[in-house]
Amino acid sequence: EFLKSFKLTNIERVEELGLDRGLLAKRTADAFLRQIVETGYFHCDPHPGNLCVDTEGNLVYYDFGMMDELKPNVRSGFRKFCTALFADGPMISDTDLAKNAKMLVDGVEEAGVLARGADRLAVEKLARYFMRSFKDKQLGKQTSNIK
């Protein structure tokens, strides 16, 4: 079924209609996360010709010829990864950050990205650094070193 819409990349049209670009970005990110984390079934080809917006600001997907489904372990692992990364906000304590870094590594391992038997302590240390950097960036701070 064809739904009248236009490309998300047509910023002139988005602004002409008074659509909120931030809200469109959030809807797009939420749609992808919902596909991956909640359903595990996702659109594999979301280029501007296949992912559009209508005049009300609703996302419109086209061309469902390239769809795929995540294996349960990948979906569950990615869910853990996302939960660990975004939990507790930017003001997270070092103790909670360490706990979340462990959860993130558990998720990566469960998804099959990290080989079983890999040096988890080193990976958790790296995860803590990148997670702290991500959260510090939200606060406008610089991260200096790995602890």
TrEMBL record:
InterPro entries: ABC1_dom, Kinase-like_dom_sf, UbiB_kinase
Record domain ABC1 atypical kinase-like: where: 1-86
Positions of transmembrane segments: none
A Pfam family assignment: ABC1
Record family assignment: Belongs to the protein kinase superfamily. ADCK protein kinase family.
Protein name: ABC1 atypical kinase-like domain-containing protein
Biological source species: Minutocellus polymorphus
